[in-house]
UniProtKB/TrEMBL annotation:
Cell compartments where the protein resides: Cell membrane
Entries under Pfam families matching the protein: 7tm_7 (PF08395)
Physiological role: Gustatory receptor which mediates acceptance or avoidance behavior, depending on its substrates.
Origin species: Zophobas morio
Its membrane topology: Multi-pass membrane protein
Keywords: Cell membrane, Membrane, Receptor, Transducer, Transmembrane, Transmembrane helix
GO cellular component, one term: plasma membrane
Source taxonomy: Eukaryota, Metazoa, Ecdysozoa, Arthropoda, Hexapoda
Cell membrane listed as a keyword: yes
Family: Belongs to the insect chemoreceptor superfamily. Gustatory receptor (GR) family.
GO BP annotation list: chemosensory behavior; male courtship behavior; sensory perception of taste; signal transduction
Ranges that cross the membrane: 12-30, 42-60, 75-96, 122-144, 164-181, 230-252, 264-285
Protein name in the entry: Gustatory receptor
Length: 366
């Protein structure tokens, strides 16, 4: 599937092929700036959805799952359901409902690349992270297999290995796009600092206004594309943390027969994976917001070095204009992505962990 040269798909580089295969992003022709064979993509998306639903149904009909995850079946089913919905929502948005928004986002980033510096290829960093993820995941699987009370094959089928990897790829795509926005805001800030040396001052101010507005609108498009996916990822992080802490409780209090070292280390991997996903989203978004928030301040800094009163007034108006298009990375309008999410997740995890302990105590009592 050749949808564009590497230079035209500089946002993702060679990794775009993997995202196409799993329909995390729609098939987009970077040269022609339009979707590539959308009808075929929809048929392929239907096939992937049917396969996923069929495999999930088989998993849910396995009544021996209680033997594999004794005492925490509700948490297990919640995790599986959350990941399945995450995959279905991503595929649906890519090929059925949000394809035009993806086209708008890609076109905007390509247009900005022609006016600003070309987007850095983050492909190498992605593949390094992917390799680390696969190695650590294999280590975690080994720990789970050696401590599982059921046969290896049944346990492997009960673990959503591909779902974890799919979630990792979704977060990677979101991370790359947020990094691209951060770079664009940084380049606009650099242009603003050099504007006083420009001969065409007023035309540059108009160009900065336009680019700032386009970036702000593109952030809103990104929110619409990834809003529910990020919400489901955050929910999964909370569920996984509850499951991890509850696993430690079961391990040290009720299940001494398991291979403690392997199970302990595999549980540590799960918690590490969750923290990586959560902090990747929050810290990348925070860095982009911090970079964009410098623009209004820089307008007044540059204003102090401009002798012309009319130019100084133009910079003040530019700062006021920028406030109307300040980027807000939100989760489908429910809440903004910020560092406060860490404390919200921690509070909810503590509450649900206590509920799990109370339910476990009631079951043992009965």
């Amino acid at each position: 599937m050749k949808l564009g040269s590497p230079s035209n798909s500089a946002i993702f580089g060679l990794s775009i092929t993997l995202f196409y295969m799993l329909l995390i992003t729609p098939w987009y022709h970077f040269d022609k700036k339009r979707l590539y064979k959308p009808t075929l993509a929809k048929i392929y998306g239907c096939v992937l959805i049917l396969i996923k639903l069929f495999l999930t149904l088989l998993l849910f009909k396995d009544f021996e799952i209680h033997e594999t995850f004794p005492g925490d079946t509700i948490i297990y089913y919640s995790l599986i359901t959350n990941l399945v919905v995450l995959i279905l929502v991503t595929i649906t948005k890519s090929v059925f409902t949000h394809g035009h928004k993806w086209v708008s986002l890609f076109k905007t980033l390509q247009q900005l690349d022609s006016n600003l510096n070309t987007t850095k290829n983050l492909c190498c960093i992605f593949f390094v992270k992917q390799t680390i993820f696969i190695v650590l995941f294999a280590f975690g699987m080994y720990g789970w297999l050696t401590s599982a009370p059921t046969p290896y094959m049944k346990f492997l089928l009960s673990i959503p290995m591909t779902d974890f990897y799919y979630e990792f790829l979704i977060v990677s795509v979101y991370e790359i796009l947020v990094q691209v926005f951060r770079e664009k805001y940084k380049e606009i800030n650099d242009q603003l600092l050099n504007i006083q040396a420009e001969n065409k001052f007023y035309s540059e101010v108009r160009n900065l206004k336009k680019r700032w507005r386009v970036l702000g609108q593109s952030v809103q498009t990104l929110n619409r594309i990834f809003g529910y996916q990020i919400l489901l990822v955050i929910l999964h992080c909370g569920l996984e943390l509850v499951a991890g802490f509850y696993g430690f409780y079961i391990l040290f209090r009720h299940d001494a027969s398991r291979s403690i070292n392997h199970f302990f280390l595999s549980n540590i991997w799960s918690l590490t994976h969750v923290m990586y996903v959560l902090f990747t989203i929050i810290l990348r978004v925070d860095a982009a917001v911090q970079e964009s928030s410098k623009f209004a301040t820089l307008c007044f800094v540059v204003r102090e070095h401009v002798g012309n009163e009319a130019k100084a007034e133009a910079l003040v108006k530019l700062a006021v204009y920028a406030d109307h298009f300040t980027p807000r990375f939100s989760v489908s309008g429910y809440f903004d992505i910020s560092k406060s999410i860490i404390f919200d997740v921690a509070g909810n995890v503590a509450n649900y962990f206590i509920v799990c302990l109370q339910l476990n105590w009631q079951l043992n009592k009965n």
